Automatic annotation (TrEMBL), chains A, B, C:
Family label: Belongs to the UPF0126 family.
Pfam families given in the database record: Gly_transporter (PF03458)
Keyword Transmembrane: yes
GO CC annotations on file: plasma membrane
Taxonomic lineage from the root: Bacteria, Pseudomonadati, Thermodesulfobacteriota, Desulfovibrionia, Desulfovibrionales
Domain Glycine transporter stretches: 4-78, 90-163
Membrane-crossing segments per the record: 30-50, 62-82, 115-135, 147-165, 171-192
Protein name: Uncharacterized membrane protein YeiH
Domain of life: Bacteria
Key words of the record: Cell membrane, Membrane, Transmembrane, Transmembrane helix
PANTHER family hit by this protein: INNER MEMBRANE PROTEIN, UPF0126 INNER MEMBRANE PROTEIN YADS-RELATED
Localisation per UniProt entry: Cell membrane
Lipid bilayer topology: Multi-pass membrane protein
Length: 202, 202, 202
């Protein structure tokens, strides 16, 4: 079940990566590269940081294939997908939750503390998007898009807190997915935003 | 032989890195940093992903020294090198092929599957250039320059396909180098390009 | 003692990261992300390259907490800190020296040669700032700010040279800290700069 959700999240993230390529008028290869980078980038960085090499995406090549499918879909039927953009964003919120949960669980397996669990949850969830934006030479969405990383951080924090109480992992995963996805959907619906840091003339 | 080609590729890539610094009017240190990042960056990322740490470049310091020489050359005789730019680009195509072959071979030694081999071939070949462009705050050439990464991907794919048939490694290496370098040279000569992704108003 | 200096350096770097967020008018989460990335980013990249995973910052969570404190400080009392900017820059020079020394020592523990020691000293010292600038979509300061990375490179080189002579580690650490910090302060005071690479029309 978690595996299927993980594959699903990878597909959605790959689609968001390939869309960035269409916004930047890149060629089809650029679209596939951004699809792969966005789909598996977060998990790869997480595994490298944990020392779990080669990363999971290299041990089950279905992840790469799913990314390439997502990228190909965008290349061929981008206008159709764009018309369903609200549905894509809802699916993206689910992917965010699933990736946060998987990252948090993997961090706990490697014996990390609460900050490490929150870090790995967020990194898995938003790392691919950061790589996508850096490659496309944009300021990464996470440092200015409200309640995207925040949702993953809150979900990861819940995992880290409940983990202390020896709650079984399936419950932890479920709580993380539901809270992250829920917060993201709520934030999208009501357009919640965080306060800016006051600008200074230095 | 492969070792000498590897050193040669590192030198050429370092030169391309240092040239980026001159285009951006960076100082001499920036030129050396970009020379090192471009020359050994791809291989270092490959080794980190494979878990082969510390990366090869740290175990044979000749790689760093070659990078610094390449950077220094550009600092002192950049105008002379620039006049030979066609020769530099041809040498760069050879470096691309050599790096792709080495990346593919190393991936196969670590037991990766076909997608992993193609990924590591491309990463080794173009990773240094991506780091160079990210540091110089440009959109990485690979997501918009036609038939650069593509050549490495095709070369890596040939390696991955032939690898299944138990063909001896020296043959695989040769096929990868010749195909990658050849495609790159052909693409440069005829200015081949890939189709763009259609732009959307989202 | 070194541990306290390390924590202090992390705090100062985190503050410089969060200030970048205020310059870019990011939200409070962006400020915290840049604080963490700048404070612990260099050390994390160093540990990943060395294969010392999970990186030190995940094994002692005080580092993350210090980063979050630094980021929070900037969010709340940025104008006050900005008025003391010269003091912050002096503290930053000390952090640079401490991080360079720690990076050099760790590289020597992992058996790297002179180039590896210099690389790890510089990477630890300036890596966080590079990540900060890449995330904020600026050209990294190290490739154009004079005598920042240079100071760390000189400090790391002194470590690498003296290391050959079997000088005890505490002396090496002290020499690296004093030289790096000293050169940085001198360069700031006299506004020293390196020559540019001549621009070419390619």
């Amino acid at each position: 079940m978690l595996y299927l959700l993980d594959i699903f999240g990878t597909l959605i993230f790959a689609i968001s990566g390939a869309f960035k390529a269409s916004q930047k008028e890149l060629d089809v290869l650029g679209a596939l590269i951004l699809a792969v980078a966005t789909g598996v980038g977060g998990g790869i960085v997480r595994d490298v940081l944990l020392g779990a090499t080669p990363p999971a995406a290299f041990q089950d090549e279905l992840y790469f294939i799913v990314c390439l499918c997502g990228g190909t879909l965008v290349i061929f039927i981008a206008p159709y997908i764009a018309r369903q953009w609200n549905m894509v964003m809802a699916a993206d919120a689910l992917g965010l939750g699933v990736f946060a949960a998987i990252g948090a669980a993997k961090a706990s397996h490697f014996g990390l503390g609460p900050m490490g669990i929150i870090f790995m949850a967020s990194m898995t969830a938003v790392g691919g998007g950061v790589i996508r934006d850096v490659l496309a030479n944009d300021v990464p969405a996470i440092v200015h898009t409200d309640f995207y990383a925040t949702a993953a951080i809150i979900g990861g924090s819940l995992f880290a807190i409940l983990y202390v109480f020896n709650i079984p992992e399936p419950v932890l995963l479920l709580v993380t997915i539901v809270s992250t996805t829920g917060i993201r959907l709520v934030a999208m619906h009501w357009k919640l935003s965080l306060p800016r840091v006051r600008r200074l003339k230095k």
